[in-house]
Amino acid sequence: MQFCRVCPRRVSRKWAHALTREDVPGLYFKDRGLTTEFVQRCKAAGYKALCLTVDTMVAGHRERDLHNGMTIPPRITLQSSLSFATKLPWSFRFLMQPDFKLANVEHKSLDVVDLGAMGVIQYINSQFDRTVTWDDAAWLADQWDGPFVIKGMSTPEDARRAVEIGASAVMLSNHGGRQLETAPAPVDCLAPIRDAVGDQLELIVDGGIRRGTHVIKALALGANACSIGRPYLYGLGAGGEAGVAHALSLLREEVERGMALLGCRSVAELGPEHVQRRADRRD
Predict the structure, then answer these.
(1) Is 111 helix (H, G, I), strand (E, B) or coil?
(2) Most buried residue among 61, 67, 133, 234 by CB atoms closer than 10 A?
(3) Catalytic hit among 67, 175, 246, 274
(4) Is the pTM of this model over 0.85?
(5) Cα-flanking dihedrals φ and ψ of residue 193, to 5°?
(6) Based on C-alpha coordinates, what's the Rg of the chain?
(7) 246 included as an active-site residue
(8) Residues 6 or more apart from 234 whose CB is under 8 A from it?
């Protein structure tokens, strides 16, 4: 998973590193030795924060992926075939690449490695632990002994519990609606959670951030920061590193323009009064 810091507000200095570089996968494995190994490797590599993802203990029924053939192994459809055919240089480079490996786990079992990429993926899927409890999260926070984030929360009750087990921050996320499609949007969960935990937790809105005005709304409702996924990937796909830089510059420009039009000189001046919900509007 990657974090990208977008116009942070009241974010402590300890996140300056964590939110701008690749973080570690935060899934619990049945093999606790593998989890401990990952933690130690992250410490040795100089990572500043650890994130535990708690909303993917089982894969959601992602109908769009099924329709588009994004399965393991991939299912080639007419649409994807046409896409490959119109991008021959990319397709050629892809076909010339060696079979990919998940280097983080290939040393765990020679039998798995011999099965190839699909076998490694099946091994990883079999390792996801569906029985993770708050005690396990507390154990991981203790093992890490540093800034600890829990990703995938949406209720004040869980946020309060996160404080109790030693979390430094929570990422409000519904996994892009791809896990439980009727889960509430992160921005709708933000204000109640901020009211419940006060300043005890840093809140990061993850999901639904497509424009700078979305960042402004999240900050106004109490977020410390926002993370983005698809926007930077769109830029990466379109123009590589330069495309990512351009996507971030667009977000920054939209945030600055929006704040100027709101009459705010800094993000510290943003507050709930700058957000009007549809139910609050008067006809």
Answers:
(1) helix
(2) 234
(3) 175
(4) no
(5) -70, -40
(6) 21
(7) no
(8) 243, 247
